[in-house]
Structures are given as structure tokens and as C-alpha cells.
Amino acid sequence: MNTIQPIAQSLLLLSLILPGCSGEGNARPGSIGQTIGQNVTEFAQGVGTGVDTQLQVDVELSPDLTEAGLSHTIAKQKTSIDDPQKAISIYLLSANAIKCTLIAKAYNADGQEIGRATSEVEFAEDDAQYIAFTFPAEMDRQTVKVYKIAEKPSGAEQKVQK
Length: 162
Hints:
Blueprint: H1 4-22, H2 31-55, E1 59-61, H3 63-67, E2 70-78, E3 86-94, E4 98-107, E5 113-123, E6 127-135, E7 146-151
Parallel strand pairs: 1-7
Antiparallel strand pairs: 2-3, 3-6, 4-5, 4-7
Helix pairs in contact: 1-2
């Protein structure tokens, strides 16, 4: 059920009733419409701000990445009805030219790793771009406390010995 609709209806009703109770509704014709418009606009702005804040996630860059000249400003969960992947998008800034594979590890409140994702990146000197990391569908996004970003080690993978 859409929870915004009952809230919007309640605001509309209050915006009609309150001006009449305070005498403001008698001040000039059309003031009810102005009051409704103002209240609906303020409500929509509040909802947008709340959703925007709820989508932000905590991200930490490894010391190696910060020493290489990378920093970040904002990180958010990517959400889309058409593509319900568990992904985050981070706005990274680079002071230096960098080309590597980044790995994002998701950690819960107990410091346990609960998911990984990688992304190939290439930055020119004094560059910035949004980088997306798509995590496995099985990962529970609600339990992620922080995403830690580092350069993925390159080279041959080690084989498990029997």
C-alpha cells in the first residue's frame, strides 16, 4: 500500500481546516488554495529530502587509495524498479591518473564481511566520475554498516592445495 497517499490526504484536510479555525481563511479569497499549494510543496520537499538521506551509505577508502589521490564525496544505494540489483554508486575524485580494479566489501555491524563487488576504473589526472558496484542478490542491504573500497590485488590467483 502506498503510505504517502494517506499522509497527503491528511495534509490536504488539515490545510483546509486550520486556516478556517484561525481566521486566516477569511483574510482574502484564494488563500485556501495558496495554503494547500504551500503545504503540498513543503510535504513533497520533505519526502524528497528524507528519501535522499535514506539512500546514502557509509563508505571508507583504503589508505592506499587516498595516498594515490582518490577521494569521494557521496555514496548512495542505487534503486530502480526496472533493475532491482543490489548496487551502490560512489562519486570518486582523482588527483592523479589511475587505472585499476576496485573492490568494494560490505561489512555488517559486527565487522563481518557480507558481500563483495568489483569495478574497473580509469581516471585521468584531476578527474571525477560515478563508479557503480553491483553486489550479489543474496546480500541483505539492510544489514550493511559500511562499504570499504580498496584496489583489488592483481596477479595470479592462489590455488588451494590439498
